[in-house]
Amino acid sequence: GFGIWSSAPYYKAFAFDDVTEELSATEKAVELVAPTKGDIDIVAATVLYEGENAKRLVAVCQYADGKRTVSYSEEAAAIDKALASNLVGAQATIDDSGLIDLAG
């Protein structure tokens, strides 16, 4: 799925192009696994809000073996760091609970 959120109307018509076949011809799929304890690199991140309040950092994380997982943190310091800077490329850990620990 997809979503478009904005405070102003978008000036171009929305278009959806399915590029799955084209990408499959040139890119290898990455294995997605359940979060387990270990060192990770963050490859994508966003912050989810409830109303006006930032509530959760969610990230796609990559282990040294190339496998990826999706995990999160509800720690205020992690959310603040994600809002203040781009976490892509940051090193962190997944803790025993399967949650992101930026202090690592």
Structure, described:
The chain is built from 2 helices and 5 strands. With 104 residues, the protein is an alpha+beta fold. Strands 3-2-1-4-5 form a 5-stranded antiparallel sheet. The chain is flat. The termini are far apart.
Spans of at least 5 consecutive residues with low confidence: none
- The structure class reads alpha+beta
Strand content: 25-35%
Rg (C-alpha, Å): 16 Å
Q: SSE order, as H and E?
A: HEEEHEE
Globular, elongated, flat, extended or rod-shaped: what is the shape? flat
Q: Order of strands in the sheet with the most strands? A: 3-2-1-4-5
How large is the count of helical segments?
A: 2
Number of DSSP strands? 5
Main pleated sheet: 5 strands, antiparallel
- The overall average pLDDT, rounded, is 91
Distance between the termini: 33 Å
What is the share of helical residues?
Answer: 10-25%
Question: Short description, anyone?
Answer:
It is built from two helices and five strands, in the order αβββαββ. It has helices at residues 20-26, 76-84, and strands spanning 38-50, 53-62, 68-73, 91-94, 100-101.
Write the layout of secondary structure elements.
Blueprint lengths: L19 H7 L11 E13 L2 E10 L5 E6 L2 H9 L6 E4 L5 E2 L3
Antiparallel strand pairs: 1-2, 1-4, 2-3, 4-5
Notable traits:
five-stranded antiparallel sheet; 34% strand; alpha+beta; flat; 104 residues
